[in-house]
Amino acid sequence: MANSPVYELLERNRDIFENRNLIIAGDVLDPMILSLVKNSTHATVICDNYVVCKAMAAMIGQNLNSDCPQIISYKHVDLIFSDIESALPHVKTADTLMLLLSKAKQQTVKLINLLEDKLEKGAYIYTAGANDGGGKSADSLLTPLGSTLKIDLARKCTLFKAIFENEVNTYSEPKDIDVTVGDISIKLHQDTAVFSQGKLDKGTEQLLSCLKKIVPQGKALDLGCGCGVVGIFLSKLGFKDITSSDVSAAALHLTEKNTQLNNVSDVKTIAADMLSGLDKYDVIAVNPPFHVGISTTTAPTVNMIINAPEHLNKGGVLYMVANSHLGYGEILKQNFLRVEILNSSNTFTVYKAQNL
To answer: What is the reported pLDDT for 291?
Structure first.
């Protein structure tokens, strides 16, 4: 696999990591980022992505299991698979902060606000990101913190540096939202690191409208759980054995917060790369991801559809909502004996797939 443009930008500036007490946070989507801290005095790498963090752990001869949060310490490196809030108590004071930019600007603002307490005065704060994902204008995030300059521009990515002189407090938590489907009401905390803020996305809304008609029996999986709404909905329908899985530590943490908020106790969370390493279920419900960072891809969903029959008990059902234009109907028909369209609009389609 080719190295990411952001990694290549940083690799040509790798001297900024040498002999520094370093924190790396944000959209850590390339395991090779870990190779940049070889000559750091100490490095704390906070990684939200389970697949990337597992690969990083393997690079230093360690194994990352499916628990979240999880810390792996090796020589001068602390590798933390976690949401940012849970990671904070384990982050050491640093003189350098590298922020790999999220497409959600407010998530970067949140990281700055939370991590500045871990920085010495005069610390260096860097941002690195794709120009079309906010990298080109990231100096606007750094200027309030102190003197800011552009360090490098390469591979359609930009690297900025600020000297930490001023503390800022510009982040505010997203407001809770209320979701009602039929006679089921759910309250949800939100997080800028997790898909869809401000309201429930239309795709999940259509999926829930179809799920409300099913008979609650057996084991259920909320695959790619995000804020946890599908698993909570299944619990309120009457399912008693529910697993909510996601590749994102922030999503798992938010799901746990939302299950507590809704007094739901029969949902367990687990880190997973789609279906890899998961059990067999009677119901799998999924609104599969379409974006990885600022890129779009259908490959993970296609692989999930191909593997789904192996993760369903006899008579088990896959319920999936996806953008209508992506046309997953054919790949579903190639892997399931019965495929139905339960609901369809110009934007989203809800599929029911089953092997009898």
So the answer is: 45
Q: So what's the pLDDT on residue 120?
A: 98
User: CATH topology for 177-354?
Assistant: Rossmann fold (3.40.50)
* Residues in contact with 115: Cβ distance below 8 Å, sequence separation at least 6, in sequence order: 23, 25, 84, 88, 91, 97
Model pTM?
A: 0.95
The pair of structure tokens assigned to 155 is 């591979």
Q: Residue 217 has what pLDDT?
A: 95
Residues of the chain with pLDDT under 70: 1, 291-296
For residue 222, the tally of other CB atoms under 10 A from its CB is: 29
- Which CATH number does 5-163 carry? 3.40.50.150
Q: Where in the chain is the domain with CATH 3.40.50.150?
A: 5-163, 177-354
